[in-house]
Amino acid sequence: MIKFLVPVNFAPYTINAINYCRALASKVKGEITLLYCYANVVGEDSEADENRISCREEAMAELEKLKKHILEIIPQNDAIAITNTVIDGYPEDVIAKYSRDYRPDLIVMGTKSKGETIKELLGSVTFDVIKKVTSPVMAVPNDYILNIDKITNIMFVNDFENFEYTSLHKLIKLVGAFDTKVYNVHYDPHGKEKIDPNQLEEYIDYCKSTYRNQDMICDYIYGEDLIVATQVYIDKNNIDLMAITRRKRNIISQFLHPSRTKRILFNAEIPTLFFHQ
After folding, report:
1. 103: alpha, beta or left? (left if phi > 0; alpha if psi -120 to 50)
2. Phi/psi class of residue 159: alpha, beta or left (left: φ > 0; alpha: ψ in -120 to 50)?
3. Closest of 275, 6, 277, 271 to residue 139, by C-alpha
4. 178: CB partners within 8 A, 6+ apart
5. Interstrand relation of 272-276 and 137-141 (parallel, antiparallel or unpaired)
6. How many CB atoms lie within 10 A of CB 198?
7. What residue ranges define each of the domains in the chain, with the CATH number in brackets?
8. Strands 153-158 and 181-188: what pairing?
9. What is the pTM of this model?
10. pLDDT tens string 214-255
11. What's residue 99's pLDDT?
């Protein structure tokens, strides 16, 4: 059974994440843990007083309402276990610590709309969690309109040079129950003439032999800007979900180069899944 962790602060963007997680769990027969972090500051918007909870008992009562709502709209033959948890502390710390013990297969978090202010970007709980945890994290935009049956075209931004087999395997495990087409895509800013055809062929052979029942293609995207290149590909192929692997970089690399993760997270208009390497 696949374990899902959904941090909740009762704002609309976290409710949207819950609905997306529920759709996934219904397909893969997973269990969901709804986690509320009880602190003076909750969620991504510290000024959202309307979402504040006055005590731990109130938080648990609200989680019970969410649990009841989820169970009511799930088909009776979809056996999904839902657990509610309230822990004192700030979300970015509590979620990371809880994940180390719970070891979820996927953390599902909501994000606010595209085009946030600099202050909100720097204070994003979702971004902090992505940096701190080792479990995959799915960011679901607040404006994303959920269609349970529409997880059809998936774009996996890959690195054929390093053969990200672990991330690919986790992705297939999560979406294997859906009728999906996976676009394995490598980003190269230098153009098509710089690609190594042998690497592509090796990767294609591996995918065909390992995932025989999965509709999958391997492709390249080009351009000076990763965000622009991926968005063009997303629009062209009607992508419903994007997945990407984050790599740990040394201190010098982090200082010299802007964070691609942050740019992707706050420019995405579709759910984005972040793996770690």
Report:
1. left
2. beta
3. 271
4. 27, 151, 152
5. antiparallel
6. 9
7. 3-141 (3.40.50.620), 153-276 (3.40.50.620)
8. parallel
9. 0.84
10. 999 988 888 888 888 888 999 999 999 999 887 665 443 443
11. 95
Of 182, 171, 172, 177, which is closest to residue 273 (Cα–Cα)? 171
Query: At which residue do the structure tokens 């996927």 appear?
Result: 106
Dihedral Cα 253, 259, 261, 266, nearest 10 deg: 180
Distance, in Å, from the CA atom of 86 to the CA atom of 59, rounded to the nearest integer, reads 7
| Exposure of 26 in the CB half-sphere (CA atoms within 13 A) | 16
Residue ranges of E strands in 117-237: 137-141, 153-158, 181-188, 215-222
Question: 């994007």: which residue's tokens?
Answer: 242
Which residue carries 């479990």 as its tokens?
135
Q: Which residue has the tokens 């003076």?
A: 40
pLDDT score recorded for residue 122? 43
Phi, psi for 40 (deg, rounded to 5): -65, -30
Angle at 217 between CA 216 and CA 219, to 5 degrees: 150
Q: Is 79 helix (H, G, I), strand (E, B) or coil?
A: coil
CA distance 138 to 133: 12
Q: How far apart are the first and last CA of the chain?
A: 23
> Which residues in the chain come in under a pLDDT of 50?
41-49, 117-122, 250-258
User: Which pLDDT score is estimated for 151?
Assistant: 76
- In total, the chain counts a number of residues equal to 277
Enter the tokens of residue 49. Answer: 């007083």
